[in-house]
Amino acid sequence: MEASSTQQYSGNTVLSKVLLSIGVLLVVWNNYILPIPATLQWIIFAITILIAGVPHGALDHIVAKQNSMLQKKPFSSTQFYLTYLSRMALFGICWLFFPSFSLLIFILLSAFHFGETDLLLPTSLKKNLAATAQTIYGLLIVLLLLLTHTQEVLPILSIIKKQNADILSIVFETRNSIFIILITLFILIVTFIWLHRIQALPYKWYMDIIIRTSIILAIIICLPLPLAFAFYFGGWHSLHSLENIRKYLSDSGSETISFTALLKKCVPYSIIAFLGIGILIIMATYLKTESVFLFFFFVGIAILTAPHLEVMSDMYNHLRKKDISRS
């Protein structure tokens, strides 16, 4: 059993405390002071997506260029966009012909992506072991987002395939949902015990993970879906990702990049994403159904996830190597 340092790249403590405080305040306000109207919930959801959710993905080309530079490989914008768009198209075709399979893949990819961003593991831990633990951790987050908001999620997922409606209904039954979540939590605990036998971590690391994760999970459970998604994806995940990107570009370049300067770099590609969201809103208005709009939005995020995850994972691999060289 070997003691080891942990990765230092995920966001910063001040940002974490601010976001957790906002999440707790939302829970207290919505549940004990005055319920937040559904319209305002969706406005908050839209604001977080526009300010952080979209911009953190709009930097993929800049991050990919930096990845190539650190790997001492030539970078071609044309090749990057062709590869990026072709993977989006491939995943889009999969959603068209194999929606159930694509949903499963999307959940697993999202789980790994969330876990890789959130869960700081020993820098010397083998990549496949770290990826396993991070995927299980992220899966717990994804399952809580989906399974604790049955009334909002089930109509969206039921659009995927009508014949899967019965299966989804069984999965989303309260008793079955609790069982699935508890099994995932148990597997995560066993994974941590197994990891500890491989590489010992300080007591403070475990306490930080337990306290932080417990607060995040409680916030997700206690908030309605729009606010839960806004808190975790639009706030926690996206803002920490932006901070990680800012650190990455600053450490790798000749000057420190401010958060404002980073957001300015997002503008050109964020505008394209906003146009896409605008088209979805127009379609939803025409179809006059919230579930269809959310389904298109859900699939849109899913199609973007695969190429985005690859770029971000390469970035985190470089940051892991930098942490190892410092330790």
From TrEMBL:
<feature type="transmembrane region" description="Helical">
    <location>
        <begin position="209"/>
        <end position="233"/>
    </location>
</feature>
<dbReference type="InterPro" id="IPR022270">
    <property type="entry name" value="Blh_diox"/>
</dbReference>
<keyword id="KW-0560">Oxidoreductase</keyword>
<keyword id="KW-0408">Iron</keyword>
<feature type="transmembrane region" description="Helical">
    <location>
        <begin position="178"/>
        <end position="197"/>
    </location>
</feature>
<keyword id="KW-0812">Transmembrane</keyword>
<dbReference type="GO" id="GO:0016121">
    <property type="term" value="P:carotene catabolic process"/>
</dbReference>
<keyword id="KW-0479">Metal-binding</keyword>
<dbReference type="GO" id="GO:0005886">
    <property type="term" value="C:plasma membrane"/>
</dbReference>
<dbReference type="GO" id="GO:0003834">
    <property type="term" value="F:beta-carotene 15,15'-dioxygenase activity"/>
</dbReference>
<feature type="transmembrane region" description="Helical">
    <location>
        <begin position="266"/>
        <end position="287"/>
    </location>
</feature>
<feature type="transmembrane region" description="Helical">
    <location>
        <begin position="84"/>
        <end position="115"/>
    </location>
</feature>
<dbReference type="GO" id="GO:0005506">
    <property type="term" value="F:iron ion binding"/>
</dbReference>
<keyword id="KW-0223">Dioxygenase</keyword>
<comment type="similarity">
    <text>Belongs to the Brp/Blh beta-carotene diooxygenase family.</text>
</comment>
<dbReference type="GO" id="GO:0010436">
    <property type="term" value="F:carotenoid dioxygenase activity"/>
</dbReference>
<dbReference type="Pfam" id="PF15461">
    <property type="entry name" value="BCD"/>
</dbReference>
<keyword id="KW-1003">Cell membrane</keyword>
<feature type="transmembrane region" description="Helical">
    <location>
        <begin position="40"/>
        <end position="63"/>
    </location>
</feature>
<feature type="transmembrane region" description="Helical">
    <location>
        <begin position="14"/>
        <end position="34"/>
    </location>
</feature>
<feature type="transmembrane region" description="Helical">
    <location>
        <begin position="293"/>
        <end position="312"/>
    </location>
</feature>
<feature type="transmembrane region" description="Helical">
    <location>
        <begin position="135"/>
        <end position="157"/>
    </location>
</feature>
<protein>
    <recommendedName>
        <fullName>Probable beta-carotene 15,15'-dioxygenase</fullName>
        <ecNumber>1.13.11.63</ecNumber>
    </recommendedName>
</protein>
<keyword id="KW-1133">Transmembrane helix</keyword>
<comment type="function">
    <text>Catalyzes the cleavage of beta-carotene at its central double bond (15,15') to yield two molecules of all-trans-retinal.</text>
</comment>
<keyword id="KW-0472">Membrane</keyword>
